[in-house]
Amino acid sequence: MSTSTGTRVMVGLTIATSATVICASLVMVGFICRDINNLYDEVMDDMVEFKGIANDAWQGMMTFQRPSNGKSNVFTSIFRIKRQYDSA
């Protein structure tokens, strides 16, 4: 009687403990998924902000490099005038 009853009590406690741990684990998985989604949303918001800053910087660089007469000669940056040495 005591061996059978003791075994049943131990099995019951083990099942209850396992069920509690499994439920707690599922709750923690939910919290972790929520945190990951919040992090993703924050990163995406920061990327939108970064894209705006990068585009503004790029536009600033492009307006700074344009010649004032409106014409651009692509080859001026490739072919430069070489230094002339005195042949004395």
UniProtKB/TrEMBL annotation:
Keywords (A to Z) from UniProt: Membrane, Repeat, Transmembrane, Transmembrane helix
Molecular function via GO: structural constituent of cuticle
Membrane spanning stretches: 12-32
Nematode cuticle collagen N-terminal domain span: 11-61
Superkingdom of this protein's organism: Eukaryota
UniProt key word Transmembrane: yes
Official protein name in the record: Nematode cuticle collagen N-terminal domain-containing protein
Species of origin: Panagrolaimus superbus
